Amino acid sequence: MNVLTPPLQRGMKELERSAFKTVVGTLVIKVPTKKVGVFMKAFDKDLFNQPRTRNVLPDPESKETKLIILRTDLEKIDDLPQEKVDMIKEEGVSTFKHNLEFDYNFWTAEQILHAVMPEDAQDIPSSFTQIGHIAHMNLREYYYPWKKLIGQVILDIDSIDTTFRFFKMEVLAGEDNMIAEVKESGCKFKFDFSKVYWNSRLHTEHDRLVQLFKKNEYVCDVFAGVGPFALPAAKKGAIVYANDLNPSSHEWMKENIKANKITNGIYPYNMDGRAFIRQAVKDLQATSKDEWKTFDHFVMNLPATAIEFLDTFRGLYHDQKHLFNTRAKLPMIHCHCFTKSTDAMQDITERVANIMGGKPDPLKTTLHWVRNVAPKKDMYCVSFPLSSELAFAAPHSEKRKIEQVSPSTIEQSKSARTE
């Protein structure tokens, strides 16, 4: 079967919908309605069989008959096998040429874009992630000349009230409204997508980690964004300390806490990740005067750079060692990262060891594959308990003194998540 394709329009930059109209001439058999099933079975290998089309159409001239459409490569009935020619003659049914019209709305977005793009174009962008009413596309620079056309084609054909953007957050088609509303993990989230990070493809990973958190456990979310881990965890009954460097993310997280009527058990911060980890540990311990108290889980969902922040855990509890005893606990760390290695476990644990100054316990370390983000590039979550040797070691010297957070630093934090 030769699949129908729209007319080629190489070089088109401004969308002209009328250019994608085409007419296909094909043979049809006009048969009595009651015999449609018999003919369909007999001619099953010679039917039109095109995606999103029917092989049987109403006869505009009579309600007593139907039109069975045959494959497009047949010029005349005699091109059919002899036994089928004989059946047509014996049944006394008529055959004739019929024109089928297909316009712009018939084709898929991928078909339209293939018809427009250069013949050697690869990985033509026709998919997107939907965040509320917004659809987000990542366009390679190669496709910038067609960016407006791409946005409009998907807006038209996928019939979604959307905004399409590439890395510079340019509106390509649709309403210039970046306020998105999303439901996930039993919570409602609202945010300005042009100012914060959100990836709906991570909803399964959000749910997976939240399921690990138990009621009354303490969770420290270092790169919390607008709260996709923090809010469901707090709603479940965990006590959550949640931070994000981006002031916009911090403000929207607070708005979402109110909107979801979470009145206690969640504490939002707006700090650098390293400073927050230290501060959160101090703040939690301050709620207990004489007894050891710390987090059950640290979540570090900033895959491009989170591993670099693990140096903070070396010596993190050095000043609290006198409160620790053999029955006390130390936290589990859940750190997201990327790797291109064929041995993901070896690559990631070695990188963790280089940053922390000690390798995590291999018997207690797990590696969870999250998703593929690019050819030969995968996102993982490595989970391991913080060892007492690292927790109470002499701390690393400060790599940087945080006196002021500049807008450029915030943008770097946002862009580190984009994959």
From TrEMBL:
Subcellular locations according to the entry: Mitochondrion matrix; Nucleus; Cytoplasm
Stored Gene3D superfamilies: Met-10+ protein-like domains (3.30.300.110), Vaccinia Virus protein VP39 (3.40.50.150)
Keywords: Cytoplasm, Methyltransferase, Mitochondrion, Nucleus, S-adenosyl-L-methionine, Transferase, tRNA processing
Residues bound to S-adenosyl-L-methionine: H206, D244, L245, D272, G273, N301
Domain SAM-dependent methyltransferase TRM5/TYW2-type span(s) in chain numbering: 128-388
EC number: 2.1.1.228
Superkingdom field: Eukaryota
PROSITE patterns reported in the protein's UniProt record: SAM_MT_TRM5_TYW2
Catalyzed reaction equations: guanosine(37) in tRNA + S-adenosyl-L-methionine = N(1)-methylguanosine(37) in tRNA + S-adenosyl-L-homocysteine + H(+)
Chain residue ranges for the region called Disordered: 397-419
Role noted for this protein: Specifically methylates the N1 position of guanosine-37 in various cytoplasmic and mitochondrial tRNAs. Methylation is not dependent on the nature of the nucleoside 5' of the target nucleoside. This is the first step in the biosynthesis of wybutosine (yW), a modified base adjacent to the anticodon of tRNAs and required for accurate decoding.
Subunit structure: Monomer.
Entries under HAMAP family matching the protein: TRM5 (MF_03152)
Entry similarity comment: Belongs to the TRM5 / TYW2 family.
Name the record gives this protein: tRNA (guanine(37)-N1)-methyltransferase
Annotated source species: Mucor flavus
Lineage of the organism: Eukaryota, Fungi, Fungi incertae sedis, Mucoromycota, Mucoromycotina
Primary gene name: TRM5
